[in-house]
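Marked as duplicate of an earlier ticket. Keeping the data here for the record.
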Amino acid sequence: MQGAALHGTLDTRLIGVVIFVYLLATVLYFCYIPFRNKWLGRLATIVALVGWIMETASMVIRTVISYKVGWGHAPFTNLYESMVFFSWSIVIIYLLIEWKYKNKTIGAFVMPFAFIALAYTTIGPGIRTQIEPLIPALQSDWLIAHVITCFLGYAAFAVSCGVSIMYLIKARAQERGKDIAFLPDLRILDDLNYKAVMIGFPLLTLGIITGAAWANYAWGSYWSWDPKETWSLITWLVYAAFLHARFTRGWRGKKTAILSIIGFAAVLFTYLGVNLLIVGLHSYA
């Protein structure tokens, strides 16, 4: 047990370094926006990637330790571990989108989410950084599938929220007869918002399905209207409304940007608000 505490400190110290790496990446992305310097943009991406690799190493270390002490579980089982994975997911989803669409300005509005998620692990109430044995309800492979799909979906929604904020800033400037030339064209931002939601929505859907399977395994019921289950459904309905409005009513631009931000607010309440304010089956997370 003492060894686990020692190594647990090692992985949390590594996360402490990653917090500052992500902060540096955020600053570099913001500096890139007005100057559009190619090397500054590359440096921002490299710093973000280095932070992601370090965060990956931290999760691997934590997993190895849990197996060495006989508990043997992936690092997805409490609020601290899920926040780390949330941050990790945001960065990998963002880097893949940056690589595919060759647009680095988005990083200034997405990397802050990864930084804040990790910083929260050092100041948030009820954060336990210790590696602990699983309670019986968490001893299921469905848990791993549920957490991975949900948080990858949440990460895609974080990207869509960041892009939507960019859209509203640029649209507001244009309404006042000005233009923020260093931000991407509104059509590009609208398209990126849609594509990020199209990544996140199927993942959230899978997360809810695997969560139902996990609930049946742990508590003998696929759905019990637990507060987190209810808010997960509300979040799913917001993004379903986003896609429905886009496909059937032709919603674009400001309307979908606002809906995307509302959706991510629902994500944050589902994830953190329910844990902190409402007692339910997910309270241990």
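See parent ticket for discussion. Residues 135-285 form one domain.
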